[in-house]
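EI: anyone free to look at a 218-residue chain?
SC: sure, send it
EI:
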Amino acid sequence: MVVLFVACGGATKEKKMEGEARNSELNNTIESTTKVQKILFFGNSLTAGMGLEPEMAFPGVIQGYLDSLQLNYTVINAGLSGETTASGENRVSWLLNQKIDVFVLELGANDGLRGIPLSETRENLQAIIDAVKAKNPDTHIILAGMQIPPNMGPSYTADFKRIFPELATKNNTALIPFLLEDVAGNPELNQEDGIHPTEEGQKIVAKNVWKILETLVR
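SC: here you go
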């Protein structure tokens, strides 16, 4: 099942400023939670919870799971609407100044919708993984698998889908097979734009993530 995403745009300068401001805010959050283990969700509008209150996005739902189980983790939502793998690579170093225990990487959908060469998407995702490992080899990395509609042709679509399991195998990282499993394409679980999950949709996304994350945090 596939879903249409929006590659949110804007002027390059404005995008850069927004990213820098977001990173500054996130670094303050990281520095204020030094006594607990940290899970960083690094992604685009799906992670950010576009159209919803922050606590309704799936990282916020995950925080609720952790709290209910009395697990000593703090979730940091580093989602930024419109993020591509290239802009994510440029932004990630800002967020690695403090120790991150679990890094959940959710990027690539906007690349696919823009028809960015698959080799570039793969290289950018690998660069982000390398940056995390270089900063702290003990960080657990989880890669969120993504799918795109066949607008770019069946070959591009199939090859795009294979990027994520192949990178997970290459880097020995955990993999969420498809982040939007049971949500993509269901109008009852997506907002009016048909793209971003509703509050109920985000709860299902959180369950998809938790299936993989739970084994690490327990």
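EI: The first helix runs from residue 12 to 31.
SC: 👍
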